[in-house]
Design a protein that fits this description.
The protein is mainly alpha-helical. It has six helices and three strands. A hairpin with a 2-residue loop joins strand 2 and strand 3. Helix 1 packs across helix 5, helix 2 crosses helix 3 and helix 2 crosses helix 5. The longest helix has 24 residues. The protein is globular.
């Protein structure tokens, strides 16, 4: 093998770099506008998008482990953005839902998220955005087949 292995050409390396960049910008935006961490904002957005969920389901749809989801849910409950109620389907569990204040904050977080995503994708042409959306959907679907 001649020369160095160029890790920077790997899809997974580039994806990781992009994730770090986008996480940093999203985190800064949520913190500045809403005083929420990125994890808290993701949970709030997930509950707003999917409705009342168990903590386990919330972790799954937010791509967080159950303990991360549980800790962030507790913080959001203390901030008055989420409320826990007993789960009729599982007497041992609870459902997490938005409060009135949470719904208002959710709308602001969704707007921030959309604006930030638009800014990230502004580097691409409309055609490139469409191709990327299709390619990402295929990769995600393929990854879900393995689970």
């Amino acid at each position: 093998m001649k020369g160095k292995y160029n890790i920077e050409e790997l899809f997974t390396y580039r994806l990781h770099v992009l994730k770090k960049q986008t996480d940093r910008s999203m985190s800064d935006a949520f913190e500045a506008a809403l005083s929420l961490s990125l994890t808290e904002a993701r949970l709030l957005l997930s509950v707003g998008a999917f409705g009342a969920l168990s903590v386990s389901d919330l972790g799954r749809v937010s791509n967080l482990d159950r303990s991360q989801a549980s800790r962030a849910t507790d913080v959001l409950e203390r901030k008055g953005l989420l409320a826990k109620t007993s789960n009729e389907a599982d007497a041992r569990g609870v459902l997490v839902a938005l409060t009135a204040q949470g719904r208002s904050t959710y709308r602001r977080a969704a707007s921030i998220s959309k604006s930030a995503n638009d800014a990230i994708l502004a580097a691409l042409s409309e055609h490139e955005r469409e191709v990327l959306a299709v390619a990402l959907a295929k990769l995600v679907a393929n990854g879900n087949e393995d689970e």
